[in-house]
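Side project, low priority. Logging it here so it doesn't get lost.
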Amino acid sequence: MPNPLQYNKKFDELNDEEKELLEINKKTIADFVEQSSSISDVNYATRNAHAKTYAVAKGTFCVDQNIPETLQPFFVQEKFDLVIRFSNAQLKIKNSRRDIPAYGFAVQIRDENNGLLANFPLVNFPLFPINSVSTFLKLFTAINRSYIKKGSSLLSIAVQLFKTIPSVLTGSFLKNIVKIIRRRNDFILSFDYYSVGAYRLGDYMIKIKLEPKSVDKNIGRKQNIKKVLKNYFQVNDFSADVFIQFCYDLKDQPINKLNVEWKNSPYIKIGEVKIDKNGLLDPRSCNNELLSFNPFESKTIFQPVGKIQKLRDEAYKVSMQTRRKINKLLHGKNTDL
């Protein structure tokens, strides 16, 4: 097996047009968050993506005893404390019994002194439909404006969606779309979860996969996900294996082409995520909505890699700053949201 490629900041660099579009997008993110309580009809400011929180839990990451020697310097403890947020990818919170099966499994890892090591927002769909930074920013800006102004920018949304068609007509993407449609009613904890984009592991670049163990996919079919999760954790523990892939060759493991799966890079097990029975935190607490899972708040050696990933840095910051400002004011009035 060849040596993994080393990280280079060139993978993250945006051109002048992309930087200008990002500034425009950041303004619409702030506007969206400021109006998000009325958009979703809730009494707090929501996130600009994955707005709906199903549950927040405390967990543990246990390092695999057979982890390769070269990886041991990154895991100086046998166990790490976790905070995990289960969510839905939609921008608007809907009080429907069932949501589209676009789920989030965001993991925050802390050291023995409760210091933040890394945030990893994982999702149950391994690919991303847009490789062009400009197209993504224009689409996301148009969607934000449509919510803010209630239906405006629909033509702009349609134009940018049309541009994404070539990206979704790949074998990898179509295969995973069919897979998610077939599993649309499966239990949220039965899905595998992925980092989608790449992350640093020291000087190298990796992707992450979380694979649940012994979870019945038929639990709570077509029922309210919040209630099903609550009921599940009242009587069950949860565990999932964690794997990584290394980037060895940009042809087989592209950093800035997110609509195809990496190939010729074996999965390496690094540990296990565990959530004990009764591990859910109080769902009514305002603190759940003050939590941040911004991967750029991670230690430098664990941060995201790639141009689309780079957009998260500024987007998360703007969303979080606006959300915290509003929710802290609400928190002073009412501790339960």
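Brief comment: The longest strand covers residues 52-63.
Revisit when time allows.
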